[in-house]
Every structure is written in C-alpha cells, then in structure tokens.
Amino acid sequence: MLKMTHLSKVYRTEVVETYALRDFNIDVKEGEFVAVTGPSGSGKTTFLTIAGLLETFTGGQYHLDGIEVSQLDDNARSKIRNEKIGFIFQAFNLIPDLNVFDNVEVPLRYRGMKAPERKERIMGALERVGLASRAKHYPAELSGGQQQRVAIARALAGSPRLLLADEPTGNLDTQMARGVMELLEEIHREGATIVMVTHDPELAARAQRNVHIIDGQVVDLAEDPRFHAHVVEARQGQGRS
Amino acid sequence: MNIQIRPILIALRRHKAGTALIALQIALTLAIVCNALFIIHQRLANLSQASGVDEANVFVISNQWANADESTSQVDAQVRADLLALRQLPGVLDAAPASGYPLQGGGWDNLVTMTLDQVKPTTDAAVYLGDEHFINALGLKLVAGRNFRPDEVSVVGTQQNITPATVIVSKALADRLFPDGKALGKSFYAMGTTPSTIIGIIDPLHRQGVDLSSNRYAGQSLIWPLRSADVRGIHYIVRAKPGQLAAAMREAPKALLAQSRMRIIDPKDGIQDYAAIRQKVFETDRGMAVLMAIICVVLLAVTAAGIVGLTSFWVGQRRKQIGVRRALGARQRDILSYFLTENLLITGGGVLLGLLLAICMNLWLMLRFASQPMPMAYLIVGVLLLLVLGQGAVLAPALKASRVPPVEATRSV
C-alpha cells in the first residue's frame, strides 16, 4: 500500500544541507495499522507529509497503492490526495466558517461528486463517528473530541485507501483521546490501512506495528545504539528537571 | 474547475462586515461611474458638435468702436467701408457683419410663437443679424429657399428694435415650428409685433451658446437681414480662401486700421479663428469631462485597492484553511476559482445595488440639473467594468492563495 525505498528529504539553504529523511525505507501493507514514533525532530512529520503527498521528496522511490508518485504533477498529486488518502490532523483542521456537514463535504466536492451521493456519504460518515445529529453545528460549537470525530468523518467520507493520522489525540484530554483511539481501532478492524504518527508510547502500543524513526531513518529499537542514546538523553533530561 | 457557490456564500455570511463594505463600495463606484461616464460622453459629444461653419477657413474680428458719439449712419458707413476693405484682401473669400456667431459662448435668443397672441412660446431660437454675405462668410449650407437680397437688408442702430419681414432659419428650427417639413413661405413671431416669413433654410447652424439651455433648443437659430450699426461694436465674420487663413488673419486688422484707427481690436482675443473659438467655448465641457474621468479613475483605483486589500487579508487569514483544502484534494485552480467566485459574488451583489443607485442618481440629476435619462448602455458598460475590475483586482491575491502549499495544513498557526 505504502512503500518508500531509499527515500531522502533534504532542506537546502545557501550554506547548509539538512537531511530530514535519509535512506528511509518503510513498507506498509494493506489493512495494517502502523504507529510511527520517534523523538521530536526525528522526521516523523516529514515522513507523514511526504506519505500524504503534501510535500515532495528529494531522492529515492515512493509507491502509493502501486503508483510511483515522484514524477506526478501537482494536479495528479491533488487527485491522489483526494481519492486515496484521508487525513486526520492533530489540530483537527476543520474550516471554522463551515458547519459539520459542509466540512465533511469539502473533499467530496473536489472529487466532483453529485449532491445526492455526497449527502449519503456525509451522513454515513457522521453516523459512523456518532455525530449525525450535529451536522448543522459549527466547529466552535463542538468539543475537541467531537471536532476530531468530524475530522475523521471527513477523512472517511471519501472511502480512502489510506488513513494518515498526525498525532490524532495530541490536542485532546485523556478521555477524549481514548474515544478517538477506539474509533480508529474500530475503523482499522473494518479493513482500513492506517498510519499514525505519535509520540505517545501508549497509543503506539495499540497499533498493530510500530515503526521508530531517529534522525530521519527507520531504526530497529532493539539494535540501534542511537535509540539507547536517546533513552539516556531523555533520562538525563528527566533527572535535570 | 470546481465552482462552489453555496459554501462560499456560507463563508461570506460569517464575514458580513468586510463583505458588506466592499459590496457597498462597488455599488457606489458603479453608481458614480455610470453617471460620470454618461456626463463625460455628453460633454465629449458637445466638443464635436457641428457648428455649420467652415471652421477651417473662418475667423472672427471683434471690433469695438472708440467713438461712442457717432450716429447710426456714420457707424454704418464705417462698417460698409470696413467690409469692402476686408473683401478686397487677396486672401479673403467673403466678409460679413454679425451681431454674434456660432459657438460664441452666449448671445441673443428670442422666444418664438406662431401667433401674436400666443401666451406660451412654441420654442426658442438663437438670433443672428447679418447681411446677404453672412451665409457665405460663415460657409453655411443653404438647403432650401434663397439667400437675402441686398435690398432686404436693413441697418439697425444701437438698441433699435426692428423685426424684418424675411428670415432664414436653421433646419432644426424649421422642423420644430413646422414638423410637416413645409416651412418655406410660412411665418412666425420672434418677440416682435410683425411676423417674419421664412425665405431660406440653413443646415446646420449652431446656436451661440453651448450650455444646458442651449442644448435644450439645439441647433434652433434664425438669421435676420439686419446690418448692425451699434456704436459699441460689431463682429466681422471673415472667410479666408483655402490655405490662406493665417495670412488673412494677419492682413485683416491692418486693413481695418488703414480705414480708421478709431477702433479697438483686443490684441489677445480680438481676432480668433474657429479652432480658438471652439477651444474656448468648450473649455468647461472639456474640464468637466477630465474631472469626471479623474473621479472615475480614482474611484475605480480605490475600489480595486479595497478588493486587493480585503482579499489579501483574507488569504493571509485563511492560509492554513487553504492548505487544508489543498491537502483534501483541491487543485491550485480550485483555490483560484474559489477566490474569483467569491469576488464575483461580492461584486455581483454590489453591482445589483449599484444599478439601483445609478438609476436613482440619474433621476436626481434629471430633476435637479435637467440632465437627460441615462441610456441602458452606460449601466451595462459600468457593470462589465466593475466585474472585470473585481476579477482583475482579485487575481493577484487569488494566485497567491493558489500557491499556498498543501503542507501548510500541518503547520501550527
């Protein structure tokens, strides 16, 4: 479903080159629920933005649902984002001017879907996340957990092949986070492929498989000395505080 | 392109103040620009009004007499001597005495009635006094009837009131008085107790004035066969031979001064060709047209700046939202079309209100300043202008918005 091979992402300035991802390899199979973890600045978000075709990469190969995406133009990338990927953002990213129904409708409109089908899908997705009764509410009238459920409904409405979640519970309290996580697990059980970036080990543990990123590379936690170095750093940091 | 009118309207409802202000600005601009364009067009149309005069070859000498004690016959003798001298100049085709001339800027006009006891006048006519050379000296076109005979021309002294029995009228006046087209041989009264019979018809013959009251009676003029012997002064209409205008204008005052030095010809505007006469008489119209044009340009610029400013602000404010839309599958052209459509809706609302305001403003101008009803074409032009202006003004910020990358969705505000 999602396969990156020797992928790199370099940010260049006049004087320095910074590798956000270096020789990055990952293979997510269809139906998997993968949690991507790693310390701040390790490259988790860069991985997610490249996986979601929000950014281009510098080198290597990326196959999404069998399509090599490096040569695609902006329109083709938009089409893939719209049809194959569902995004769940940490900050929900609902459009404040639109009500719940209209927010969920946004990606469907860009797909050029007819109004009756849009309505059916929107109400189906909202029922799926338990917010059908809030269709006419505006985001500001909902709790954080409800807003994230709307965002999940928006991601699900287009029946994407891949769900990408960026710290989906990062802005939620424990109870709301639990509810959202249960929803994601339920969606996964129904067959969705989910890649979730998180720094929360508890959430990561609930995924089927964990991928750890350090310094822009996927590492094997048991063998990589850098992981141990990070653990030591983290412990020292805790000791200082 | 994915046109999303309903979501845009919903979003605009939540930005009422900015939307209403821009729509109102567009409405006011449309109302003012439509009326200003109409006024500009009217003024410019004035500038090109046909006078009927052979303007390329005619000039006018404004001659004031220095001796106010002379009798009518003495003044007339001098006038006849002057005219003879002018006609004998090698570069001159003809010369005539005149009380006034077309496009002079103001002059004598009389109310016209069909009968002596008529209370409400039929119309108004500009009055010219001239002799049998008047038509030829101005280069006017006689379209029906005949010119005055020398024996029909009388001399009229200072403040003397004579109503000649014959008259030559402009076609506009003839048609106004006798719509059946049979004016020759018919009579009318022009503030006198005796009727004047039409012996000739000229087309066209502009009035002296170019103001609103003149426009109401556009082209309605009459010529009476009278040679002015007013002690205050006289105009000489001189028609030069083709290509000899400048030379004739140089020689004419010399010839007059050789006849008598008891006269004043203003060195500044005592001798004017028709280019100068036209320039002077339409100065106000030209100035008004320029002023209106400046007002239009400033208003349009301010409106465009308002649209650019508000849209740029909205693009900046919605940067993250645009990124989210891009992340959810919007193409660059979808974002571009979003902002263009949004502007079209705001401009459309402003334009509808503006049409109403434009019509109200025109009605007010009609009531207050006797303006004419504004043709629909000005409204159509105004609407198109504002729509194009709106789309043009929004293009740069909309393009900027379309270039917001989808990764903006993941950035914290």
UniProtKB/TrEMBL annotation, chain A:
* Native species: Dyella thiooxydans
Q: Which domain of life is it from?
A: Bacteria
Q: Which family does it belong to?
A: Belongs to the ABC transporter superfamily. Macrolide exporter (TC 3.A.1.122) family.
Question: Per its record, how is this protein called by name?
Answer: ABC transporter
Q: Which GO terms describe its cellular component?
A: plasma membrane; transmembrane transporter complex
Q: Does the keyword Nucleotide-binding apply?
A: yes
Q: Is Cell membrane found in the keyword set?
A: no
InterPro entries to which the protein is assigned, alphabetical:
AAA+_ATPase, ABC_transporter-like_ATP-bd, ABC_transporter-like_CS, ABC_transpr_LolD-like, MacB-like_ATP-bd, P-loop_NTPase
Q: Which UniProt keywords apply?
A: ATP-binding, Nucleotide-binding, Transport
